[in-house]
Every structure is written in C-alpha cells, then in structure tokens.
Amino acid sequence: MADLIELIQSRQSNPLLKAPSPSEQEWQRVIETACCAPDHGRLRPWQFRLIEGDNLKKLGEVFITAQTKALADEGQLPTEQQINRTKGLPLRAPAILAVVATLQEEHKIPVVEQISAVAAATQNIQLALHSLGYGCIWRTGDFAFYDDVKKSLGFEVSDEIIGFLYVGTPDKAPAPRTLQPTESCFKHWQG
Three-state SS for 100? Predict the structure, then answer.
C-alpha cells in the first residue's frame, strides 16, 4: 500500500468510470473507514445508500420526477432533452453512493460540526476507494436538495444529502495533480 501522504496527494476526482465497482466485501471495508471519521459527540450523523445495477435506472426516474415537479412549481415542463440528460445522469458510473447527514438540530453539538463529520467520512470513503484502485467523483447538484429524492432514498426531508459519490474503475488515469503551494494557504500566526 502506498504511503498515506502519497495516497492523499495522488487521489483525484475521476469522472470517467466503468465497471467493475467494489465488491460487497470491499464496500464493507470502505464504509468501515467512513465510520472512523472524527465525530464530536459520537452522533454518527452519516447514512449511506448504495445504488447499483438496475437501481441506477430507477434513480434516473426518481431524478426525472423530482425535476419535473420542481419545474412545474415554476410553471414549466422539462424538455425532452432535459429528460434524456437527467435519465442518464446516474448511468455515468457502475455505482453511486448517496451520502447523507442526519442532523440533530437541537443537539449541543452544532450542526456545522455534524456536517463536517459527514464530510470527513466522505473523504475517508474516497481515500479508501483510491487505495483499492477505484475511481470516484463527488457530485451534488440540484437533485441533492429535492425532498422527493431524499424520500425515495429512504431519508427524512430534514436530512441533508451531502453528495452522490460516483464510483467505478477509472477509464483512464487523470493528469498528474499539481500540488497547491502551501504559502497560499498556510502561515504561522505571530500573535
């Protein structure tokens, strides 16, 4: 296995993904890494839904229904082009992992910390997938904010979809990453 720092520095989003995606055993290991994320108060504010196979097409239908409803609220209807594009969105990878923050608004742990814990869990997932040789891209978009999408995935309207992780085998390696100069984001505080 690569050195941890090398693993982190070499991980990149990869939008060109094909089969195979992780096996059930690999998914179990990946989700275990998510559950090791920093979690103030041990609230475990994360939930995950794995979508694969024919369920990707069903997710496309859920997206179309949600989009149609949202457009209707604005007095519009989706065009055939919009419907076809939306239907194809989940088919860009052999697996999608929906990542959700189940927030406790009235808890002493601030909501921002709960969301941060889910983001840390998501980063752990991306690193674990990368270590296993899989590619991943974290997408959000309008569909993460539609109540009908949340409900269709088995979540509450009050839950927040943090993102959809599209997962598979990279079709081609991304160009090497250029690391950000640390001077642009890191300074010693002098008091």
Answer: strand
For 94, residues 6+ apart whose C-beta sits below 8 A from its C-beta are: 17, 18, 19, 20, 21, 52, 56, 167, 168, 169
Q: What is the pLDDT of residues 28-39, one digit of tens each?
A: 999 999 999 999
Stated as kind and residue range, the H or E segment containing 49 is strand 46-52
Q: What's the CA angle centered on 152, arms 149 and 155, to 5 degrees?
A: 85
Segment 164-180 shows an average pLDDT of 90
Q: Whole-angstrom Cα distance, residue 45 to residue 104?
A: 8
Residues 169 and 17: beta-carbon distance below 8 Å: yes
- CA 145 → CA 48, 65, 155, 156, distances in Å? 16, 13, 12, 12
pTM summary value: 0.93
Sign of the C-alpha dihedral, residues 147, 152, 155, 161?
negative
Q: What is the pLDDT of residues 115-153, one digit of tens each?
A: 999 999 999 999 999 999 999 999 999 999 999 999 999
Measured CA to CA, the distance from residue 67 to residue 56 in angstroms comes to: 16
**Domains of the chain with bracketed CATH:** 15-170 (3.40.109.10)
